[in-house]
Each structure stands twice: as structure tokens, then as C-alpha cells.
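Standup, Tuesday
Yesterday: got the pipeline producing C-alpha cells again.
Today: sanity-check two examples.
Blockers: none.

Example 1:
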Amino acid sequence: MDIEGTTTSIAFVHETLTAYARARMAAFLADNAGDDAVAHELAEIRRMEPDVPELATLLALMDRNSTLTPLKTLQGMIWRAGYAAGDLHGGIYPDAASALRRWSTMGLRLYVYSSGSVEAQKLMFKHSAAGDLVPLFSAFFDTGVGSKREPESYGRLALGMHLPPNEMLFLSAVEKELDAAATAGFRTCQLVRESDGTIASDRHDTARNFAEIRAIST
């Protein structure tokens, strides 16, 4: 499953998480200038825009809602501190949390595939209002696997999960991601949450919340 618009509201991702990282990015880079992990990600940013200060490039990427891995990794580092300080709490929909617990009890294997870094994914599920949901998942994947809009990425996921694609159901709010998953042989379902303004697809099964996901409702 994806996160944004699926397990978590789009507003939480943009108005809470992204805004939190943006407000603290400059201080974070200054305070962690000697950290090897931070330096590695900044080197990747410099390769993109060698004549532009790293901070300016990072802020511009956030303005474009970029899913670039170095940006997501640095944001994840900032969010880690925010969760530890109690400033942030994972915004997981109650219907998603309830279904995840039920599906795990049924013996289903659960995975996340999101553009946010694996660390950021785990932080969100660990600090949810429903408690620590991380143990419910078998694995977490980010764009290190590849773009969520490329069928090849889902082929790699299936290999990593050691399952044939037709035994996997991918949940997302984004039609192009679902198209890519379906091309790779996955079953698909689009989450169409009214609060997120998602436009329903005519190419995939749809559900307004996790309780309506028919393929695994029993």
C-alpha cells in the first residue's frame, strides 16, 4: 500500500510533515554539517544543481512536491527528531489502522511502498494515534526500488516479497501508480477519500475507506 491519500490524508503529508521539514531544513543542515549521512545526501543534491546552494535546491524540490530520494532521506531525518520530541504524531486514518490489525490477524502479509523514505514510513506508523503499527508489516519499500509509476518497480517488489504479482493487491489513491501495478500483474484498488478530493478511476476497483476493500474484506 501507498501512504499519501491511502493510509494517511494528503493534508497531513503536505500541511504537517512537509511544512515541518521545510521550516527546519536550514537549521538542520547547519547543525549537522559534519554528519556523514547528511553529507552523502547533500552531495547527491549538488550533482543535480552544482551552481545552486543545497538549501535553495531542497526548498525548490519541496515546492514541486518532489519524490527525489536524497530529499526524502533528509526530510526523514528531520521528522525523526520531530517524532522523538513529541512535535509530530503519525496521521493514520482510523479505518486503515483497524483494517491493518484485522488483516495481520488473518495472516495476510502487509507491505508499504511509498515515495517517503523507509525510515519516514516507519516513524509514521510507529507513532500513530492507534499505537505502534510497524510490527504488522513484513517490509517497507521506497523509491530505491524505482518510480511508483513504472511497471518494472512492481516487478522488483514481487521478487523482493517472493510472491507472484497476481497474489498481491496494491492500494493507492493515484491512478497512474495503479496502472503501473496492474501492468506488472498486481491486483489493484484505489482509495477514493472525499476529504482528499481523489477522482475515482474507471480502470480499477475503488473503495472510500479500508472497510470497503472487497478483495480482502472477509
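Example 2:
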Amino acid sequence: MVTRQTLPHLWLISDARNDAGLEAALTRLPRGSGFIYRHYHLEPPERIARFRKLARIARARGIVTVLADSALTATEWGAGGVYGAPRSLWPRRRHLRLATVHSLSEIGAANLLGADGLLLSPVFPTRSHPGGKSLGPLRFRLLARRAKAPVIALGGMDRRKAKRLGWKRWAAIDGLS
């Protein structure tokens, strides 16, 4: 079981725009990485079928698979964890709980609810939210200090930006696809 101490450093996040390359991207990820399956664009039968296919690849490569959905659905689908807004992480199950946060108040909620990891975003400008305001490295670090669990940098991230940020845990959609 993945814990705060063994939380992967590198995370691939699924999206409609990187769907076609996910199998290849999963095979390129180092063993022990993480994969967050979102795929909100698919209808339920297609979404679960796609999850099962990608989860098989991920598990065979030793990649932790987390589902962006309810804790109950994550348990039913056999995901290793659940991802979402802090309030969506309940009820507590035996799997990893990753909170998506963008502000101090959301970090506080994730701390209160005992999230195992926080994805803090957007660090840099991102294609997901064109023209949206990003945190930037300084604000990211100031907010990250308030988290009680490990923080995963998200938003415009790729290997070069992770190195520039000097942050060991990071996630990407385009930057790893």
C-alpha cells in the first residue's frame, strides 16, 4: 500500500487531449510512478472500460493508479486511490487519498481531512486553463509549506520546469504524454 512516505514523485494525469498516447506514456513512466485517471469526457461504460485497460498496463509496470471519482467508486473499480477536491475524499477507505488544491483554504480542508497528498496548482500557465492565473514558484512554495502531507506540483509542469522549480514531486498531463 502506498503511504505518505512512499508517495510517488512522478504522476501522469489523464485527459481527453492525451488519451491517444496514454498506453505509450504509461510504458515510459519509471516503475513506482503514479497515474491519475480522470477521463471525465467519457460516458460511464466507456470510462470504466478505458480505466480497466489503462490500469492493467499501469499495474503491470508497478505504477500506482488513482481514480478521480468518489471513494466508493474507487473501491468498486479497484483503484489504488482517489483524487478530487478535499471534501470528496470521504468516506475514508484503505486507499490513497489525493486532494486537488488551489488556495490556502483548500489546503486547510485537505489538512483537516487527512489527505495523503496534495496536488497544488497551477504552478505555471497551462493549456487546461488558457489565460488563467498561475501561482508561480514563490507563491507555490509559500502555499506548499502550509500542507501537512506531501505536495505534488501541477500546472504547466514538465521535466525542465520541475528541475527549475526544484520540486521532487510533480504531475503533468501534456508534459508526460
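Quick observation on example 2: The chain has one domain: 10-176. The domain at 10-176 is CATH 3.20.20.70 (TIM Barrel).
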